[in-house]
Design goal:
Elements lengths: L5 H17 L7 H22 L2 E5 L2 E5 L8
Antiparallel strand pairs: 1-2
Helix pairs in contact: 1-2
């Protein structure tokens, strides 16, 4: 089994968030366009949340702490 590098995992999520943000819009129209945009928004949210996490191992569990505000409040 590969060794878990949590810092590298978080960096990959940051990179995925940036890739989604920079993703070009394919030539779709109407309902398909709206579905594509909605999925891109969800992908960016998911990837950026994990990408901004800090982590710790507690009682044998990987714990990701995801800030829900920009200043940690």
């Amino acid at each position: 089994m590969a060794e878990l590098d949590v810092d590298a995992l978080i960096i990959r999520y940051r990179e995925r968030a940036a890739a989604v943000k920079d993703r070009s819009l394919p030539p779709v129209a109407g309902d398909e366009r709206q579905l594509f945009l909605k999925q891109a928004e969800l992908d960016f949210l998911d990837f950026s949340l994990v990408g901004n996490a800090t982590w710790a191992v507690e009682d044998g569990h990987l714990v990701l702490r995801i800030p829900l505000t920009s200043n940690g409040d």
